[in-house]
Amino acid sequence: MTTSDLPSSVEPPISPRRQVVVSVLLVGLLVGFSATVLLLDGGGEADNLLPDNNDADNDGDRTNGSQGGDVTDGQGNGTGTLDDADRDGVADGRDQCPSTPRDVDVDEVGCRAPLQEGVWMHTRFGGKSAMFDGDNMSTWNQTLSSIEAYGLFIDEIDDLRNLEALTAGLAQHGVDLVVESGGTLQFAPCNESNGVRSAEIELAKIDPIYQAGGHVDFLTLDGPISRTIVGGRGDSCGVDLNTSVTWLVDYVQTVHDAHPEIGFGLLVNFPNWVWGDVPAYQCEQTSWGEGIHYGDVLNASIAALRSAGLPLTHVVADSPWGYVNATEESACREDVTAYDWMGRLLELEALVEHHDLPFVLILNDKTGGEESDEAFATSVLDYLETHHGRGGSPTVYLVESWYDYPEFHHPETQEGTFTYLTLDVIARLAELQADSTA
Ligand SMILES: [Ca+2]
Q1: Ligand 1 mean position to 96 CA, how many Å?
Q2: Which pLDDT value is given to residue 285?
């Protein structure tokens, strides 16, 4: 893949949604105030959970000590000031997660909000700085207002010259930033330090986003187990499932300790794994994990991350359309049409949802993505319609390309661009959902 970007300015446009955010915050303050008055000593959380911004007492007034509007939990009632130890806009008295990290979207009881239903977009490498030039944003403003999250590959962060504009642009439109990373890396030492060392490597790669004043909402780990498990991708570490999972937990714990605001997703390169009685589509020399059922891999990963108390937020299926409609060539079998590939993809979705986790399906296509804008768009829309028609209902459809096409990201009004296609997906999904509820 080639990487290129274009110079761009740092001035994002003013967004009307900023005013909406301010209004919501004001309502939150009023609601929080009422709850404080009603609940009196109901908020008993410690008042020193997240010291930062010179606010050692964490009362939100950004001052240290009891001067200047200080509020101590459970005792500040009647002062007319909000008790909100973690400053998430939810009063302590009704905050069921009183130490939520900063920058985490919360629900009405102050806990990490579940993934919003909708569409995410993740363009191919290159040209992303230019997308967040103040002028260029006006050429895909509707897309930016319509998506829930925007994706980047971790290895292109270093090449994006205008991260300030990117982070400000996403924040203004209330769009989350998802970074796709490797997770446990086969080139970190293949020993018990793998998870921690992999995390250190990737923490350094996301650091420029923080230096630019932004933050990562979600880190999607692209096939972390496949990089370490025996019979995994080419140069994997060759360890057993338990060891792979242990290293994965080490990785997530290390990143979490540095950035507690990040939610973690597990991405599975689905065609490379066996699923029950259905073989891997692309078996290479052997199926990944030497033929282990990916359901067992997923169950073990989810159980371990949850028992460590880590914020696993979603599971992503990477399964391009040609590997679902059996038109891609298989490296290892002559007749791939003998299996129901969509069926096993739907079973994966069911397993993810059985774990009460949001399922994210990548909509893309290798053949179309190597052919033309039009071929890619046609495949993506066919994939959406067929998947929905078979009963698929992921929390998020993710329009993503790592191929040559779509060639251009914007303008969104020009047929063939990535943003044009994303808006098409959003419109088509709304139609399909309306049809199925009618
Ligand atoms: Ca909270």
Answers
A1: 7
A2: 60
